[in-house]
Amino acid sequence: MENIRNLINITDLTVDEINDLIKVADDIVDNPVKYQDSCAHKKLATLFFEPSTRTKMSFESAAMRLGANILSLPPVEQSSVQKGESFTDTIKMVESYSDLIAVRHPLDGAAKLASETSKKPVINAGDGSNQHPSQTLLDLYTILDEKGTLENLKIAFVGDLKYGRTVHSLAKALTHFNPSVMYFVAPQSLQMPEYLLEDLKKNGIKYEILEDFRDCLDKIDVFYMTRIQKERFPDIEDYEKVRGIYVINRENIEGKCKDDMIILHPLPRVDEIDTNLDNTKYALYFKQAKNGIPMRQAMMMTVLKKDKEFFL
Ligand code: NCD
């Protein structure tokens, strides 16, 4: 993985690079001790200009498990961002304090700008509604782990497909793996952006646009549920029209889907997955979140070129 320096867009990775990252994550799961000092004395900076629980904490936990140290931008209202410091000035500072930067920002393209500003590697921890490549890698890892393959799957993306960066990244990544069909289930106002659908068409990927998940429930291998992202609606009234539109629970899932269907969700959930599904065999979302640790360890090792010491 000679060329990987930043991880900004999932399309920056070839299919071989994705498979290599998965291989590294797998070995980390099997042999955690082997890697515990692999990034000793390195410093990970986490710059989160938007709320986060999983992504930030799993990056930090991953860094600790590699022997690295962590420094975090204080919450935006307590940092110099509040005084009017520009994003690029912030990056220039943090670059000199750290060896690697994980950045989350509400604006599309912010991570790319960070990578163009910083001499140190940058990982995109989510930029606006655009991309979330580290989430995608852990999603792929989870699907592969459960299904034994990433090829020829039928997957439904359900919920906020307009603003959902995890959906945008994962749909693009799956084009490498010859999906049988992707179902995009959303109210019209929250459907997949046209540029992404065009891209799928160009790649010869079969997809269907639906408004009701019951129209594909019995066919799919993966149910990828998402939260309606209230904070991204320019007009709160538009949010009110679609809030709570999709809710799954034992009553509307059990016996109506394939026996081995899995439910994924990048989390946080609000009300779209009833907690009565949590202890069923379908519910993979907490395991998915846990898989963020080895996958992010693999990403950090790769951009810091530490994977070379373990894999030739
Ligand atoms: C997602 C995100 O931030 O894009 N969460 C995550 O990183 N696991 C999805 C969301 O906020 O709904």
What attributes characterize this protein structure?
312 residues; alpha/beta; 5-stranded parallel beta sheet; 4-stranded parallel beta sheet; globular; binds N-carbamoyl-L-aspartate
Describe the structure.
- There is one protein chain.
- This protein is of the alpha/beta class.
- The chain contains ten helices and nine strands.
- The model has no long low-confidence stretch (mean pLDDT 96).
- 44% of the residues are buried.
- The chain binds N-carbamoyl-L-aspartate (NCD).
Largest sheet: 5 strands, parallel
Q: How is the largest sheet built, in terms of strand order?
A: 7-6-5-8-9
Instruction: Tell me the structural class.
Output: alpha/beta
The helix/strand series, from N terminus to C terminus, equals: HEHEHEHEHEHEHEEHHEH
Can you tell me the residue ranges where pLDDT is under 50 for at least 5 consecutive residues? Answer: none
Radius of gyration: 19 Å
Percent strand: 5-15%
Q: Shape, please?
A: globular
Hetero groups bound?
Answer: N-carbamoyl-L-aspartate
Would you kindly provide a brief summary of this structure?
The chain is an alpha/beta fold.
Give the helix/strand layout:
Layout (H helix, E strand, L loop, with lengths): L14 H16 L12 E6 L5 H12 L3 E4 L14 H11 L2 E6 L4 H8 L4 E6 L5 H15 L6 E5 L6 H10 L6 E5 L8 H9 L4 E4 L11 E4 L10 H7 L7 H4 L8 E3 L20 H19 L9
Parallel strand pairs: 1-2, 1-3, 3-4, 5-6, 5-8, 6-7, 8-9
Helix pairs in contact: 1-10, 2-10, 3-4, 5-6, 5-10
The chain binds N-carbamoyl-L-aspartate.
